[in-house]
Amino acid sequence: MNVRRSAAVVAVLAATAGVGTGLGTGFAPAALADDTAPAAPSASPSQAIPTGLYGSTDPKFDGVWRQSLTLVALDAVGEKPGAGAVDWLVGQQCANGAFAAYRPDPTAECDPKTAVDTNSTAAAVQALSAVGGHDAQAERAVGWLKDHQNDDGGWGFTAGGPSDANSTSVVIGALAAAGETPAGQKKAGHSPYDALRALALPCAAGTEGSGAFAYQPDKKGGLAANADATAAAVLGSLGEGFVVDAGKTGEAGENAESGSANAGAGTAGECVSGTSPEDAAHNGAVYLAGALTSDGYLKSALAGAEDQPDLGNTADAVVALAAAGDTDATAKPLAWLEKNYGPWAAKSGPAAYAQLILAAHAAGTDPRDFGGADLVAQLTETGPARDVDDYRSVPSDDTADGGGDDGGIATGVVLGAGLGLAALAGAALTRLTRKRRRT
C-alpha cells in the first residue's frame, strides 16, 4: 500500500507504451518497492485536477490509489471525505468492474488499451467498502479480481501477470473488505494464502532474510527478502486490509486461514518453523522488527541510497507489526516518524498522510496528535472541502482547482533526485523485485 508504488508504475508504463493492457507482464511493476522513489515525471498537472480528487499533482499514475488510500484512512478515524471525493472514485470504474490508475475522461468507455490493474481495483474496493453505499460497484470490482486470479492462487499487478506478494495481499484485503472469504477463493485448487506461502523465505536462524517475503521469485526461482513485500504479506497472511484496528491485533483475523500452532504467540523472539499463514505472518514481523535500525526506521533499498531512511516502508512496517501483535516494536519507528515525516509527507501528498494515519491508528496512538501535529487535518487540506453532511449526495465535478505545488511521487529524504524515467524502467526490468495526494 505504499505511496511509492506510483513511481514503479511510471516505469512500467514507460517501458510498455503502446502495449495496451499488457504493461509488461513479464516483470514486477513495483520493483522499487523498498525504496523511497524519485519524483515522477509530470509532477505538475498536465491537465486540470478534478475538484473531487485529493492531491494537486498529475494523477496519471496514482489517482485511484491515492484517492482510495485517503478515503480508507479518513473513514478509519471517523472523518468524512470532501465533496465529490467518493463520486470521483466511482466514476473511474470501467464497466467490467476494473479500475485503472487514472482515466482522464471517465465518460469514455474502457477498451483493451485501458491499463486496468489489480492494485488500483483492490484499493478501490477497500475504499468503497469503507465509505459504504456502493455495494454494486464494489461487487463488480471483486468479480473482476476473481476472474483474473492466477492458477497459483495469487495475483500480479496486471491481469494474468506473475503473482507477487504485494498484489496478492492487497486483493486479499479487498476480498475481506467486501465480505468475502479469501481462503475460499481458489483457482486450480490454490488459495491466495498458497501464493503468499510460496513467496515466504524459510525460517533459518542466523540466515539473512529469514522469515521475510520476496516480491516475486527471481529468474532462477530464488527468493530475496523484500521489506515492502514483507509488510504487505504480513497483512495479507492475516487476512487484513489497509486498516488494522488497535486492540484487535496479534491473532489471526476472521478472514485468515486457521491452523497455526503458533497463532497468538506474538512476534518477539525467533521465527517459527510452521507453514500456516499465521506462522508466515509471525516470521515476517520478526524479520521487519529486526530490519529496523537502532533509530527505528527501515533503510532504502534503492541503488546508491542504501543508508537513507525509507519513510513509507517504515510506516507500513508499523501497521504490519501491529497486525502481528508486536505493538512494543511499533514504538520506536512511530517515534522516529513523528520527528521526521514532515518534509516527506508534504512533498508526497495525501497517500503519505494516509499511510501515517493508518500506522498511528494500528498502533493505538492518536493521528490528530502525531508529534504535535494533526495528520487528519493535514490530509483533509490536500483535498476538496467537506461542506455537506451526506457526501454521497454530492455529484463529482470536473472543474479545475488550480493545482498546487506538491512535488509528486514520494521523494523520501533527498533520495533519487537525479534518477530519470529511463533509469526507473531499467531498474524495474532488471531487478524483478514493487504501494498510492493533494499529489
TrEMBL record:
Region Disordered: start-end pairs: 384-406
Transmembrane intervals: 409-429
Family matches, as InterPro entries: Terpenoid_cyclase/PrenylTrfase
Source taxon at top rank: Bacteria
Keyword annotations: Membrane, Transmembrane, Transmembrane helix
Protein's recorded name: Prenyltransferase/squalene oxidase repeat-containing protein
UniProt organism field: Streptomyces neyagawaensis
